[in-house]
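Human: My hope is that you can spare some time for a protein that puzzles me. I am handing you a single protein, as its sequence and its fold in token form. Could you go through the record with me and say what the backbone is doing? Take your time, and here it is.
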Amino acid sequence: MERLRADCERCAGLCCVALPFARSADFAVDKPAGKRCGNLTDENRCAIHARLRVSGFTGCSVFDCYGAGQRVTAREETVSGPQLFAVFRVTRQLHELLWLLTEAARGGRCPEAEASAAELDALIDGDVAALLAADVEAWRARVGPILERVSERARAGLDGRDLRRGDLTGKHLRKARLRGATLRGALLLAADLRGADLRQVDFLGADLRDADLRGADLSEALFLTQPQLNAAHGDSATRIPDTLARPGHWPDHDSPPSAPAPVRRAKAPRARGAGGRGGSGKGRRGRGR
């Protein structure tokens, strides 16, 4: 999974230029696609990375390119200018699918996922014109059933609840026993999940913005992504999969009990097949450097 982790040191700041964002609760300013962010330095580094959230750029702290930035930057000798940005926009979406397929294939549990990931890799590294012409939505539709089958096998026998696409915004689910449930595409904005058992829960496309995960056990969660974690609140007692990194804004100690976060009524991203609501793109963009 290492190659699918963002490495800003090896990237030319592509997401700070290629992708747009709109002034909102997540972004302090408007920026069209193709224009450099005003916080991007001449060395292609974010000047406010250490204080993104307090500077009004929470969306940037949520975003993750799944390693697409460094992969596209490595092609600068053959691709440049607007075409480079277009390649990045497509590659980032395909890298999200690669992340999900790679998780599905871990331990040899799904040869079909492994084969699809290899096909995607070949597409990304191949002819630029073919990459730009790729039908991302068709790929999402193709990957979705593969992930569904893996999820069903992983959750078999656990009698988990089917809460897919449910509106659980602000729900009090503290210490809930949700092991084996499916929360695909569910709205969990500001949900109180403190101390909940979330092992073997399918989080594909779930919206976890401002969800309270303090003390929750997500150690064996299925299809949980870095942007989903980045958008939520947790602490040192929150258990996460070993493939993900603990978000920098989470405290490094157990947090005392407190009221759950207030519900942010920001418009949720449109659900998109295998990527679902949880994928943080741009338009409503988020990113950390």
